[in-house]
Amino acid sequence: MLRKEWSLIVYSLMLQAAVGIVFFLLVFRLIFAGESGAGQMTSQTMNPLTSRTMGLTGLLILAGMAVSVFHLGNPFRAYRSVTNLSKSWLSREIFFTSAFFVLWAAGFLMEKYGNLSFLLIWLTLGAGVLVILSMARIYYSTGKTGWHSATTFLDFFGTPVIFGTLVSAVMLYGQRRTDGVENLLIIFSILSLFIVIARFSMQLKLVEKCLSSQEEYSMDQLVGASLPARDIIPLYRKMMIRGFFCTFAGCSLILLMMMIRIFDSGHLLIVFPAVLVVAGEISSRSSFYLIGSDES
Amino acid sequence: MADKRYGMLVDMQRCIGCHTCAIACKQGNNLPNDVWWNRVLTFGGPAMDTPHGSFPNLEMKYLTLNCQHCEDPPCVAACPAQATYKREDGIVMQDYEICLGCRMCIMACPYTQVRSYNEKNPEYYLDFQVGDAWVEKQQKGTVTKCTFCHNRLDKGLQPNCVEVCPVRARYFGDLEDKNSEVSILLATRKYTRLLENKGTGPSVFYLI
Question: What is the least distance, in Å, from the CA of B111 to any CA of chain A?
Answer without folding.
Answer: 5
